Hints:
- This is Membrane protein.
- This protein is of the alpha+beta class.
- The chain has one domain (24-148): Rieske Iron-sulfur Protein.
- The protein contains two helices and ten strands.
Amino acid sequence: MKIVKYIAVLVMLFVMAWAVESKAFFGFGKYKSVAAENGVVTIPVADVSDGEAHYFSFDQGKEVKFFLLKSSDGVIRAAFDACDVCYLEKKGYSQDGEFMVCNNCGMRFHSSRINEVQGGCNPSPLTRTYDADNVTIQASDIAAGSGYF
Length: 149
């Protein structure tokens, strides 16, 4: 009987660790939902300027996932959470320091190359503009990536 309790505790700890790591805990998922106003999605620069990848979802009949991050060279980058090669697996990317890592094949991409290099397993670029206050992305540009999802 004690072994069953130990196994149950181990499983519970594993699930909790996964939930915290994936930011999927108590109903809070990895992706923050965003909406367009007048055809534009606006995200405050202050929300994405910490060097960490921030994940978003946009639903316009189909959920499209993307991420933003400010790379070490000071540029705010945007890409779909998918690539031309591994998108069918629907695993996206995770961050490891200065690199975005494909969760399917493990290839690593320096954050300063996002939006500059495309094709293969590179994060598929997402057109964005930004100023001191906001990152703006056209809803049509996000919707154009729906084939990845």
